[in-house]
Amino acid sequence: MEIQRRFEASGPAGPHNIAYMDWGDTDNPDVLFCVHGLTRNSRDFDSISKALHEDRRVICLDVAGRGDSDWLSNPEDYGYPQYMADALALLGHLECERVDWLGTSMGGILGMMIAALPDSPIKRLIVNDIGPFIPRTALKRISEYLSDRPAFPSLAAFETHLRTIHAPFGPLTNEQWHHLATHSARQIGAGHWDFKYDPAIAIPFAEIAGQDIDLWDIWDAISCPTLLLRGENSDVLPRETAKQAQTRGPRATVHQFDNIGHAPALMATEQIDCITNWLSG
Predict the structure, then answer these.
(1) Is residue 8 situated within a structural domain?
(2) How many domains is the chain partitioned into structurally?
C-alpha cells in the first residue's frame, strides 16, 4: 500500500538524501504531493493518504532536516531555495509533470512559491493554515517552542509534551496523538527521546521571526485553482488575510475549521472530506 523511498538531492554542501512516502499505484498519473510544516514530517499525511491512495498516487516528502531525510551540514541552507530545489528535483525524478499540491504551513509556503513559477508543475494548490501575510507575533511564538528542546525519558513523556505544544491541532483521539508522537520522536539512547528534526533549523528561523512576512507578490502570481484551509483560532493565518486571499491572486476558496488553531492536523473525517471533495470537484 505504501513504501518509504529515498532520493539523492544536491545542495551547496554536496548531496543529501531525501526520504518520502509513496502511496498507491506508481503508474497513476494523478498525483497528490504533500509537504508538512516546519518541525513535522511526511507521516502527518498518513490519514489522508489512506483515504486517497486508491484513486491517486500520494507522495509525502520529508523536507531536509526532518523525519528520515538527511540533516544539512550548514544550518544556513535550511531555507526555501533548498527546499524548492529538492521538491522540484524529486518531481523530476518521479517524472511528475503536473501534480496537485497539499502543503501545511511551511509546506504551504513552498507550494505557493512553486505555484507562482512560470510553467509551474502545480495544477491545483491546497494551502493549510498559512497565507500571504504572517504576523511576527505568530513567528515569535513558534521560535520560542523551537528553542525549547528538553530531553524526554520516555516516548510517553514526549507525547505529553507534543500534546501541549501542538494543542492547536484540534481535538485528536489518543490513537492519533500516539501516531504523531511515534513518528515525531527518535530514541537516542536508554531513557533519552528527542524530536526527529535537526535542532539547527531554529537558527535561520530565528533570523526571520522578528518581523512580519509579506508574500503578497507571490500570491498574486498564482493562477491555479487554490483551496485555503484555516483553523478558526489560527494566529498564523489571520482572518483578514484569509478574507483578502479570496479576492487576490488565485482568488482562493477558503474553508474554516471551528475550534482549531494552527494548524488543522488533516486527520479528522471532516477535514479529509473537505480536501477529497474539492479535488473531485
Answers:
(1) yes
(2) 1
- Domain hosting 257: range is 2-134+213-280
**pLDDT digit string (tens) for 179-206?**
999 999 999 888 899 999 999 999 999 9
Cis before 209? omega within 30: no
Question: Mean pLDDT over residues 249-254, rounded?
Answer: 98
CATH number at residue 22: 3.40.50.1820
Which pTM value belongs to this model?
0.96
For the chain, the residue count is: 281
Amino acid identity, residue 117?
L
Report the greatest alpha carbon distance in the chain: 54
Contact 220/191 with Cβ under 8 angstroms? no
- Alpha-carbon Rg for the chain, nearest whole angstrom, is 18
Average pLDDT, the chain: 96
Q: What share of the chain is helix, strand, coil (3-state, %, to 5)?
A: 40, 25, 35
